[in-house]
Design a protein that fits this description.
Radius of gyration: 27 Å
Distance between the termini: 56 Å
Number of strands: 21
Structural class: alpha+beta
Helix content: 40-55%
Largest sheet: 6 strands, antiparallel, barrel
């Protein structure tokens, strides 16, 4: 082995991507839900509008909260990005139960809970509350209550008066007086739907609860539609004469007509057939934030392979994001299959039904898939320019397979065919790294699998310190600047998410690492940065999206997990609202003199006004504020009293000395949260 091998393999100890803890996964799913929908997903009553919900709504424990977040993230993907916000929703809250002292004639009285048990509620405005009794019920409740919001929205306006405005049309359709025509779906799509259908037919109403009123009848139909899409779409196209089909057709029309550009039948056909609807990095990001089951693993593997074969079809920014996410998913796919435990020293070995102690064909098939994953990640890396995240992903995957080999070899005789499959994987992993790190690729190709397993750290992930656990010496500046205890607590919570990036500032939005900053700070797509958090955590990042007109950019971090986050506020600021700005004033003035200013400076001010169209050019930001800023504050978040980001500082008017920031509306549009 050449002399440089130990140095190259030492990268294992510094570049390995560690799996996120359960709490980080939950946070990731919740953040992904909000990014996809534009709606806050919460599990506490504080902050909900008065009167929303029931008399008693006990909270979920951490594990059930994580399960609920993942379930709702999957269900929310059935709607277009941002659609839930467009139908007026701002909060979706989930609890262990919904219990009220009053019944409605349809609910059972529960002696143990001391009240009538409900599933959920739309408050008639902007909030849904839902109980999580089991994994089968929660999606039904979610889609039922979402449709109430859809039913209460007309031409983009959500109001209670709209809720009954279409009841006559609904009843005319169901009675046959004025039926909807059959859904228009192509023959090829109908054939594909038939393969996915379970044979369910909604002949009339979903159940007795539909008799309560037309609004509940429609909402029950909606939950049937959204949880049995292939069957529902088939009957809407082939059997429109059924009253149940007319119910489905009315609901489909309501989804499309509630807001401009609402989803039509084609959208739901795409959903039912599992076709990709959003951006590739968006869907891969959703898969990367939670644990993988067999179905999600198969989808992730298929998407990565598809983009690896794209031959440069993706724009540079998307290619970089896809490569970074594939680097996280590649070792996660191995973990999902081998189920490592005890610091990656014990594994599950799968065997086929025909296994009788000879060669394990299922194990060899797994290794072949791992090798294809390595090749696909290498192909993505070559097109996206590589990067530490890709190297780290390949190295962690290689470490896991090497330990898998060691575990198997210590317990069973390894057949020649199985050994060859392990070696083929090692060769594929090495070859995939040649375009990114040729020296490391040579070292891996010449090493033994046992040697590759030995050089990796052995401490379990749970024993490792997360970056957020480090001491943050800059928090004292929050305490010194803010007198109000509640406001101080809110800013202490989000200050760890403010980062130094290049010559400016940014704010981290996702636990996996996604920094929002100004376009003039990020400069251009593909530019790389060292991103520094106030606790001293430093990660590499690359600019993956940029909008020069709105002066906004995103920087995706490499190797991030469990990072502190802040969120963009769910509502726009108003003139007179208090704000806190945290940023990185320059250590020297433009003429080179030392300023004495310290990093993560905290200043308090107010929103002083707005300039013209909030979605117009932001070179001089269209939100005016008077919080103190200086050189280096570009990209600094303006936090409201809840600790939410309401604007992003980017400039100042030399004539008036007024500070300016990119508007809340521009940020949400840029992030797809409209």
């Amino acid at each position: 082995m050449p002399r440089n091998v130990p140095v190259a393999l030492a990268l294992f100890s510094t570049l390995v991507l560690l799996p996120a803890a359960a709490s980080a996964r939950a946070t990731g799913a919740e953040a992904a839900f909000e990014q996809l929908t534009g709606v806050e997903l919460t599990f506490v009553q504080e902050g909900l509008p008065p009167g929303a919900g029931y008399d008693r709504m006990p909270p979920l424990d951490a594990e059930r909260r994580a399960d609920a977040a993942r379930i709702l993230l999957d269900e929310a993907r059935k709607y277009p990005p941002g659609y839930l916000a467009k139908v007026g929703l701002k909060h979706i809250a989930v609890f262990a139960a919904c219990v009220d002292d009053e019944g409605d004639g349809f609910r059972p009285y529960d002696e143990e809970r001391g009240g009538y048990v409900y599933f959920g509620q739309w408050n008639g405005e902007d909030t849904i509350v839902a109980a999580f009794y089991n994994a089968q019920q929660l999606p039904l409740t979610f889609h039922h209550e979402v449709f109430h919001a859809v039913d209460g929205t007309a031409d983009g306006e959500t109001h209670r008066r709209h809720f009954t405005s279409d009841d006559a049309r609904f009843e005319a359709a169901v009675s046959g007086e004025r039926p909807y025509p059959a859904a228009r779906i192509s023959a090829s799509d109908l054939a594909a739907l038939e393969k996915r259908a379970a044979g369910r037919v909604l002949r009339d109403a979903v159940g007795d609860y539909c008799a309560k009123n037309p609004g509940e009848d429609q909402a029950e139909t909606a939950r049937h539609l959204m949880t049995a899409l292939p069957d529902a779409l088939l009957q809407a196209a082939r059997r429109p004469e059924l009253p149940g089909s007319q119910r489905i057709l009315h609901v489909l029309a309501s989804y499309g007509e509630a807001v401009e550009g609402g989803p039509g039948v084609d959208w739901f056909v795409h959903v039912a057939l599992g076709r990709e609807r959003a951006t590739p990095e968006g869907r891969l990001g959703e898969l990367a934030v939670g644990p993988l089951d067999d179905a999600r693993a198969a989808e992730a593997r298929d998407l990565i392979a598809r983009y690896a074969r794209a031959n440069g079809a993706l724009p540079a920014a998307q290619a970089a994001q896809v490569a970074a996410l594939a680097a996280k998913l590649t070792p996660a796919l191995i973990r999902q299959r081998t189920q490592p435990q005890r610091g990656d020293t014990q594994f599950t070995v799968w065997v086929g039904k025909d296994y009788r102690g000879g060669g394990n064909t299922m194990l060899r098939a797994d290794l072949s898939r791992f090798a294809e994953d390595a090749k696909n990640l290498g192909a993505l890396a070559r097109r996206a320019g590589g990067g530490d995240a890709v190297v780290a992903g390949q190295l962690e995957a290689l470490r896991l397979v090497a330990r898998y080999h060691r575990y198997i070899a210590a317990r069973w005789d390894v057949s020649a065919q199985t050994e060859a499959a392990f070696v083929a994987y090692q060769r594929a992993a090495a070859d995939a790294l040649r375009g990114t790190s040729p020296e490391l690729a040579d070292a891996i190709a010449r090493a033994t699998l046992n040697g590759l397993a030995e050089v990796a750290p052995t401490a379990p992930a749970s024993a490792r310190a997360e970056p957020a656990a480090r001491e943050n010496p800059h928090l004292a500046k929050v305490d010194a600047a803010i007198e109000d205890p509640a406001w101080r607590a809110a800013i202490r919570r989000v200050q760890p998410a403010v980062v130094k990036i290049g010559g400016g500032t940014g704010v981290n939005l996702l636990a996996s690492g996604l920094v929002l900053t100004n376009a003039h700070v990020a400069d251009n797509v593909g530019k790389r940065f060292a991103v520094l958090f106030p606790d001293g955590t430093q990660l590499a990042g690359v600019c993956t999206k940029l909008d020069a007109e709105h002066d906004l950019a995103l920087v995706t971090l490499e190797g991030g997990a469990g990072l502190p986050t802040a969120r963009v506020a769910p509502r726009a600021p108003r003139v007179g609202d208090g704000v806190v700005v945290i940023g990185m004033p320059g250590t020297r003035s433009p003429n080179g003199e030392e300023t004495g200013y310290d990093r993560w400076h905290v200043s308090v001010g107010k929103i002083r006004g707005f300039v013209g169209d909030p979605l117009g050019d932001q070179s001089l930001g269209r939100t005016k504020h008077d919080a103190w800023t200086y050189w280096g504050h570009s990209g600094s978040p303006l936090f409201d009293r809840d600790g939410d980001v309401v604007a992003l500082h980017n400039s100042w008017d030399s004539k008036t000395a007024m500070r300016h920031a990119v508007t809340w509306q521009a940020m949400r549009a840029f992030l797809g949260l409209r």
